[in-house]
Amino acid sequence: MYEYKFVQTHLGSFFQESTYRKTIEEYAKQGWRLVQVLPIAYNGHGKPTDYEIIFERLLS
User: How many CB atoms lie within 10 A of CB 52?
Assistant: First the structure.
């Protein structure tokens, strides 16, 4: 059986640094496996700005 974790992250912009790489590396060190990345927020031009990263790992 698996457990899942849903983590929101920001792609970054002119004024903000992106956080997705740090988030993925942090959860991978804890034994989580990346399953999928989904856009959840868009700017006024239709470009995704925020994402939900879905991780899974085996229940111990």
Answer: 14
Q: Which residue has the tokens 């868009």?
A: 42
Where does residue 55 rank: exposed (0-12), middle (13-18), buried (19+ CB within 10 A)?
buried
Structure tokens at 54: 């879905």
Predicted confidence band at 13 (pLDDT cuts at 50, 70, 90)? low
Q: Compute the average pLDDT of residues 31-41.
A: 95
Whether pTM > 0.90 for this model: the answer is no
DSSP assigned state of 58: E
List the one residue out of 40, 29, 48, 45 whose CA is nearest residue 7.
Answer: 40
